[in-house]
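hey m, so remember when u said the tokens were messed up on ur end? i reran from scratch. heres the input so u can diff it against urs
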Amino acid sequence: MLEVYHGTTKEIAQKILRENFKIIHKEVTNDLGNGVYTYCPDEENIWDPQNNARRYAIQYKNGKTQVLEVTISVSSDVYYIDLDDEEFKQKWNQIRASLEQRANEIWKKYRRGNAKKRHNIDGIILELAIKKGMFDETPDFMVKCTYTSFIPNTASNFPNGRELVIRNLDIIKKVAEV
């Protein structure tokens, strides 16, 4: 089992606790594709995932915020992709090269959203690759070290957290308020 953290509003947190998570497919997908975005521990314990979830909620959600601790199964039958893995990076270069033109065509059709403003097509490429069966199987989750702009209008090439995106809600075993 692994504990990951999701930052949101108090209102949405209460709804999740009552009704469970739902994956909402946005017009423009986020950087790591569709799913429930969380922060997880990194191997070196550099970043505090609970604090990152809190900082995310404060920066990007309106109103009072809440962090949820989400326990997920990481058993041997759970398939995930570590987007930082060296083997995956090589595969990603091939996937990107084969799908980048199509992803840009899709991106041009979108009308709005933060991902649209940033012109980040990685999430679109990931979704296309999954749809085309370019991975061993459909991932239950994906994980990557990322940079989140906790301070408005900042960018960096250096990560400040590790995000884990849950794609298969069946791996969620428990959700609790922090």
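this time it looks ok to me. Residues 22 and 36 are 8 Å apart (CA to CA). if urs says something different then somethings off w ur setup not the seq
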